[in-house]
Amino acid sequence: xxxxxxxxxxxxxxxxxxxxxxxxxxxxxxxxxxxxxxxxxxxxxxxxxxxxxxxxxxxxxxxxxxxxxxxxxxxxxxxxxxxxxxxxxx
Length: 90
Known about the structure:
3 helices
């Protein structure tokens, strides 16, 4: 289970950036906290979502993405595995 803190959000953002994704906070008329733009490496997060929604949306996106683990350090690889396993526990 991920803690709902700004530190967790920052770790998720850094994980995406390390994997080659660009994270942007924009206003928009999408309900979820994050979306992929035309399968590019840009993640758009709704800046008006609350902290919990942002974390849940980015974590769900990370669960669906395939990462090149060579781009990540050991802690980030462990974090990705933790995020992907939380889906199995639900």
